[in-house]
């Protein structure tokens, strides 16, 4: 559809994908780079993998990804989770990795490590997270997919959960990504077209603790990888188009064991009190350029001030009506931007509600 796309030759590719691998397994190692993007490279293994411990540590040139200086460029990849590979099929896998330095310290962009430490220390509260990942699809030229060249579509209104030509763009990419996630075992819980045309959302969760970050990062990898085959770019920018066009968020739904049980509402209220005291600290890790999105318009709250309310989409945190009626459930932190790191977001929430831990 887009003008100057380089799409893969899927007819030819499918012939080779069917070839017997003679018992070897391909493992695609995936990691997070210095700009919040994903990188990957693959490795042949001798046979089927059934336990994370069977996966060897590996490394890459950190000076090429902005993750290490040239004179000490090795960054180590430590596997933390693996998933069936929806592209190569068979016993092939995708491997989510943490990044580590040669002196045994976590890489500066390894935000999983600290999050895992704080979650482990507070494991008895059994945190669940469900994140709503919004994103925008762009053509090769960087303009939203399907928008008139050098122009704008009609104002927002018909696009949210839209059906029909001119109302939604790239349903084929969204559908492919959804199936790829399910195949990989990602707990994707739904998807919908968003308020701005070419903007979409999918949800991952509820997942327990650190699993949410692992799954969400792998789902982002899958989205970039699927969109590659259609010649579209994915942007997680929180305000891709300035003006009267909705931004993109990463609404974060949270509950603990205590909140889900009878009388849980008082634990949610206690959580609101704690969150209200750390607005600045949270906003610091809730994504780059989030101030452009958090204008108080377009279903967002103020950037500086913490507020919460039942069924209020203009508050920092929304408690849904069902939860308020039942007196138990979960809350929705609406502040994180679409480009936030889910490890940082879920990590600081556990820290604020349960206390800091020396890593
Ligand atoms: P919204 O109404 O804000 O659009 P969505 O339906 O898009 O909400 O997303 C809600 C998310 O909350 C889903 O990912 C869902 O899995 C998650 N969720 C549901 N129950 C819980 C819970 N008890 N704890 C944490 N997350 C939950
Ligand atoms: Mn080389
Ligand atoms: Mn949603
Ligand atoms: Mn949404
Ligand atoms: Mn939401």
UniProtKB/TrEMBL annotation:
Keyword Iron set for record: no
Domain GS catalytic: 111-359
Example GO biological process: glutamine biosynthetic process
A GO CC term assigned to this protein in UniProt: cytoplasm
Record-listed E.C. numbers: 6.3.1.2
UniProt entry tagged with the keyword Amino-acid biosynthesis: no
Catalysed reactions, as listed in the record: L-glutamate + NH4(+) + ATP = L-glutamine + ADP + phosphate + H(+)
GO terms, molecular function: ATP binding; glutamine synthetase activity
Pfam families the record matches: Gln-synt_C, Gln-synt_N
Record key words, sorted: ATP-binding, Ligase, Nucleotide-binding
Domain GS beta-grasp: 25-104
Domain of life: Eukaryota
Protein family (similarity comment): Belongs to the glutamine synthetase family.
Oligomer and partners: Homooctamer.
Protein name: Glutamine synthetase
Organism: Patellaria atrata CBS 101060
